[in-house]
Amino acid sequence: MNTNTSSSRKVLLQDLGVFLFIMCVLAGALITALAGKDLLYQHIVLMMGMMGIALLVVLRAQTAGTVLTAVSLLAFTVYKLYARIAFHKPIELTAYAWPLILLGVLGGTNMFISLYASIEGINGVLNRRIDELTVMDPLTGLENMRSMISSLRRYMAFSERNGTSMGLMMIRLRYAEEIRKVLSRQQFNDLRILLGNVIQDALRVEDRVYSLDDAGSMGIIFFSAEAGAPVVKQRLINAVAGKDMLPGLVGQKLVVEISAVWKMYRPELSKDAMRWVSEVENEFAYEV
Question: Which residues have CB under 8 Å from 137's CB, separation 6+?
Answer without folding.
Answer: 143, 144, 211
